[in-house]
Amino acid sequence: MLLWLLDRLTVAWPDASLAALGKITFRASLAAMLSFLLAVLLGPRMIAWLGGRFREPIKSDSPQLKRLHRDKQSTPTMGGLFIVAGLIAAVVAFGDLGNRYLQLALLLAGGLALIGAVDDLIKLYGSGNGISRRSKLAGQLVLATVVAVLLYQHHAVLPDGLLVRLPLFGGDLPLGLWFIPLAVIVIVGASNAVNLTDGLDGLAGGCLIFATAAMTVVTYASGHAELAAYLDIPRIPGCGELTVLAGGMIGGVLGFLWFNCHPAAVFMGDTGALPLGGLLGLLAVACRQELLLVIVGGVFVVEALSVILQVGYYKWRRRRIFLCAPLHHHFQLKGWGESKIVVRFWITSALCALMGVAALKVSVKDDSHTIPTSVTAAEAPLRR
Fold first, then answer.
1. Tens digits of per-residue pLDDT, 233-260?
2. Could you tell me how far CA 277 lies from the centroid of its own chain?
3. Average pLDDT over residues 223-227
4. Residues 303, 249: contact at Cβ < 8 Å?
5. Domain count, the chain
6. Residue 38, pLDDT score
7. Which of 82, 232, 284, 319 lies 20 to 30 angstroms, CA to CA, from 249?
8. Which domain holds residue 121?
């Protein structure tokens, strides 16, 4: 919407200096502020509305966890509705809707939010723990495959579009058609990893902010010709527009944390965790940094691995590795307070994000690359 308005103002007043208002960095900042303000200002009304319809039942196979979480019984859930709504509003207001990456992001966010909402509703009004794992995974796979195929068609014509970057060591690997299954794995894996992490007040939200902030830097650099050349990373034209999406994600989650910090007034639910995780995966796929996401999202990776190891080892040896999985519940049962677990996981997530950004610089050969003076020059009007 902002770009549309600026285009028309430029035609009407060609001498007006409006280029700065169309810069990606400026629009991303506006998107973050808008999604944050929408969440904070509309949050109380949304929480009251959710509280009258959708209250979280505490369902767990562990009597200890039920006891520890008894105070959370009947907390309003499906708060992801106002995160996703604010995010979409920010993207529509400040993004270039003609950009293929933003179009796919909106498709992915809406589709995963719908799957999450169905799952949450069945948990609330059904006798089970939501839709079956196979059905939910099937829905995620179908949606992710559609996005991956459309993204492949777009990337296939780009010189670096089908490369996957090797962090720390430098260099790239060509993927060809393997781009599609890798993209599906990353998007679905990130979606479920964030969902698994969403088990304590503020845990998933805080970790998401750090991971998304790191991927924002990478995404912007990938879409910027000079920065991509300096950092020796794949140059993906148009990818920088996802910075606006990332800004909306950060602002929306920050606003949500205003109400989700301990003791939480509202839960995110699958309605929020699935799309936010999926979008984090999409950021990595779009800028060809799927392997870097393993470092940046280290907390999510470890949380998901703890569940996989726990289930696999129990099926194999009928014994458990952890007191409870995901990992944050293991520390709960060891006697750690909820706030202590959340803050320590946040710290770990921040360190992972810093490591990921630092990994970009490790492979840069300073003797053969210099930052062009054009990097500090004004960005191209409106869409740079």
1. 899 999 999 999 999 999 999 999 999 9
2. 4
3. 91
4. no
5. 1
6. 94
7. 232
8. 2-13+22-375
Cis peptide before 76 (omega within 30 of 0): no
For residue 91, give both structure tokens. Answer: 């993207």
Query: Per the domain annotation, does 240 fall within a domain?
Result: yes
Burial 149-175 (b: 16+ CB within 10 A, else e): eebbebbeebebbbbbbebeeeeeeeb
> What SS3 class is residue 54?
coil
Is residue 163 within 8 A of residue 234, CB to CB? The reply is yes
Cβ neighbors of 129 (< 8 A, separation 6 or more) are 59, 123
Choose between 103 and 10: higher pLDDT.
103
Is residue 201 included in any domain, yes or no? yes
Is 383 a domain residue? no
- pLDDT (mean) for 178-200: 96
In a domain, 368, yes or no: yes
CA-to-CA dists, residue 237 to 100, 288, 292, angstroms: 11, 12, 19
Element (H, E) at 89: helix 80-94
**At 183, which amino acid appears?**
A
* Ramachandran quadrant class, 113 (left: phi over 0; alpha: psi -120 to 50; beta: rest): alpha
* Token couple for 83: 């995160």
383 φ, ψ to 5°? -115, 15
Residue with tokens 């709960």: 332
pLDDT tens for 350-366 read 999 999 999 887 766 65
* Percent of the chain whose predicted confidence (pLDDT) is above 90: 69
Q: Name the pLDDT band for 74 (thresholds 50, 70, 90).
A: confident
Q: Which residues pair with 164 in a beta bridge?
A: 173
φ, ψ for residue 163, nearest 5 deg: -95, 150
